């Protein structure tokens, strides 16, 4: 599982995808090089683009990408876990392409029976990360799309440089592996965190969901032989999204 460097998101960040691997060009039976097929990209404004070097953790088509992406109103989604429900309110105006993709994945049951593979407990980073059916932190939906970054987050008082912003308790945001690499992984903020504003915020967690997150966070992070008291790793209380359903 990708790691953070120190207490702030630095090189790897909240990662949702593995590194690209160089592949030799395929050849025909006669030995001539076969032209590579370019990745498919949807024709609408969201431009969801296949990632052949990062195949989907579960089969799922590219999302719909209408010319007029819905960009008003909110949508409720509930993540059902054995620790309790996590209710989400998705904001289409804040991040229309992200909400469209998330609903698409939920509709195709991409998130069902999916673990939340990562819990962090740094003083400046307190999140639960989910959305990878493989549970490794490397899996995604087989496509990526551009950031819809927040512009109204307050400066983090713990950062004298002013570079980081407060991702407040209750925010729902996309994990990524760098600019414009959004896929399926997302994180739920259970305590105010200080991050560079490089992560798309697309909704909020409701009060019942925050109570569920608090129970998970109170369980701590599973120790490993290398680190008996980790602040970043798998939750000690295993978390699985049993169903992701639209509505309450």
Automatic annotation (TrEMBL):
* Top-rank lineage group of the source organism: Bacteria
Q: Point out the coiled-coil segments of this chain.
A: none
Instruction: Give me the reactions it catalyses.
Output: [protein]-peptidylproline (omega=180) = [protein]-peptidylproline (omega=0)
Which GO molecular function, any one, fits this protein according to its record?
peptidyl-prolyl cis-trans isomerase activity
Assigned keywords, A-Z:
Isomerase, Rotamase, Signal
Upper lineage is: Bacteria, Bacillati, Actinomycetota, Actinomycetes, Micromonosporales
Q: What is this protein called?
A: Peptidyl-prolyl cis-trans isomerase
What role does this protein play? PPIases accelerate the folding of proteins. It catalyzes the cis-trans isomerization of proline imidic peptide bonds in oligopeptides.
**Signal peptide extent:** 1-24
The annotated region (Disordered) lies at 29-73
Q: Which organism is it from?
A: Micromonospora haikouensis
Q: Which family does it belong to?
A: Belongs to the cyclophilin-type PPIase family.
> Which SUPFAM superfamilies does the record associate with it?
Cyclophilin-like
Instruction: Domain (PPIase cyclophilin-type): give its ranges.
Output: 84-246
- TM stretches of this protein: none
What EC numbers are recorded for this enzyme?
Answer: 5.2.1.8
EC top class named in words: isomerase
């Amino acid at each position: 599982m990708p790691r953070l460097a120190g207490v702030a998101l630095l090189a790897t960040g909240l990662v949702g995808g593995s590194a690209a691997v160089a592949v030799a060009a395929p050849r025909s039976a006669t030995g001539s090089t076969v032209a590579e097929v370019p990745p498919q990209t949807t024709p609408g404004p969201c431009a969801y683009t296949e990632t052949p070097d990062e195949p989907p953790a579960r089969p799922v088509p590219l999302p719909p990408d209408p010319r007029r992406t819905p960009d008003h109103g909110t949508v409720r989604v509930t993540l059902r876990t054995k620790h309790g429900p996590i209710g989400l309110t998705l904001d289409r105006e804040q991040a229309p392409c992200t909400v469209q993709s998330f609903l698409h994945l939920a509709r195709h049951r991409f998130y069902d029976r999916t673990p939340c593979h990562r819990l962090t407990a740094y003083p400046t980073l307190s999140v639960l990360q989910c959305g990878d059916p493989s549970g490794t932190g490397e899996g995604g939906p087989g496509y990526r799309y551009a950031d819809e970054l927040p512009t109204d987050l307050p400066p983090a008082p713990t950062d004298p440089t002013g570079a980081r912003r407060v991702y407040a308790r209750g925010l729902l945001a996309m994990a990524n592996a760098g600019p414009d690499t959004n896929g399926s992984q997302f994180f739920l903020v259970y305590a105010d965190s200080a991050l560079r504003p490089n992560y798309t915020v697309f909704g909020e967690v409701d009060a019942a969901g925050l109570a569920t997150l608090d129970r998970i966070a109170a369980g701590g992070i599973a120790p490993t032989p290398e680190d008996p008291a980790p602040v970043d790793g798998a939750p000690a209380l295993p978390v699985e999204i049993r169903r992701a359903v639209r509505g309450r």
